[in-house]
Amino acid sequence: MRLALLITVTMVAFAANSLLNRAAVEAGLIDPLGYALIRVASGAAMLWLLLALRRTAMPRRIPWVGALSLATYMLGFSLAYLTLGAGLGALILFGVIQVTMFAVAAMRGAALGAQRLAGAAMAFAGLASLLWPGGGFSVDLTGAALMTAAGIGWAFYTLDGRGAANPLAATASNFLWCLPLMVLATLAALPSWPAPGGALLAVVGGAVTSGLGYALWYAVLPKIETTTAAVVQLSVPVIAVAAGALLLGEALTWKLVIAGAVVVGGIALAVTAPAAPAGRSRTRG
Q: For residue range 38-61, what is the model confidence (pLDDT) as tens digits?
């Protein structure tokens, strides 16, 4: 029960990230790269402060996988939304995350099982119904490629977290080493100066929902299977849509309610699948 609560809190933090990003960037208070830079810097500062208060040392080794995958996610996600619609972008992002994490689990010898695959497919179908753009639309190939890179980056960032001995220290190290990469990318693009409101939203998104949220995610990951970690993340857009209706006054239609129920049902089907019998899998899925 405690683990389920921690997963729920983490997914809510991820959904809050989406809402904060929309509130800042879509309102024109800050450009996407500036938001990402402040987000990473604020996350690094918050996590460093927590380590200092706990008198915990930062890991000495450079977290190449964690830092590079986090930077890939942050940059790909930020730049993709310059040319890609929010719904289609989220669909590409979470679809790539699912495929990448399930593929890695299978390559590592995990027995995926029919029920787990069916649940994941059901949840993604519900998500597609929820996010698919209405009417005619065109896909910007550059934006789609950037969001694909972001999905792969986040998948490997998640996979890397399964081996974190100290989740808080590992997350702090990832943010700290990701920061120079974000600075270089942002300086190259010469972003505009943010409005105070945009900077404030980026700080909250970085220090709280990203820094603390990602540290909590790293604490949860060693306790669940790779495929479970992949599937539960499909709840994030559903939570974001529900929160948008409650907090931002956005329309909540029966289509959204039914699609959300399908996503939740698919997640429940996948995570309640029986574990693979001993001997059939070389590692946890």
A: 999 999 999 999 999 999 888 889
Question: Nearest 5°: CA angle at 155, between 52 and 120?
Answer: 125
Q: Count, in order, helices (H) and strands (E) of the chain.
A: 12, 0
Cα distance between residue 219 and residue 215, in whole Å: 6
- Nearest Cα to 208, choosing from 4, 7, 12? 12
Alpha-carbon 95 to chain mean position: 12
- Residue range 197-220: average pLDDT? 95
CA dist., res. 163 & res. 166, Å (int):
9
For residue 200, how many other CB atoms are within 10 A of its CB? 16
Buried b (16+ CB within 10 A) or exposed e, 214-238: bbbbbbbbeebbbbbbbbbbbbbbb
Given a cut of 60, whether residue 284 has pLDDT beyond it is: no
Phi and psi based region of residue 273 (left: phi greater than 0; alpha: psi -120 to 50; beta: remaining): beta
- In this prediction the pTM is 0.90
**For 125-149, how does the pLDDT look when each residue is reduced to its tens digit (9 = 90+)?**
999 988 887 665 677 889 999 999 9
Provide the H-helix boundaries in 54-195: 64-80, 86-107, 114-131, 141-161, 167-189
- Widest distance between CA atoms in the chain: 57
CB 255 within 8 A of CB 132: no
pLDDT tens column, 238-261:
998 888 777 766 677 788 889 999
DSSP 143-178: HHHHHHHHHHHHHHHHHHHTT-SSHHHHHHHHHHHH
**Beta carbons within 8 Å of 88's beta carbon, 6+ residues apart:** 131, 132, 133, 137, 139
Helix axes 141-161, 64-80, angle to 10 degrees: 150
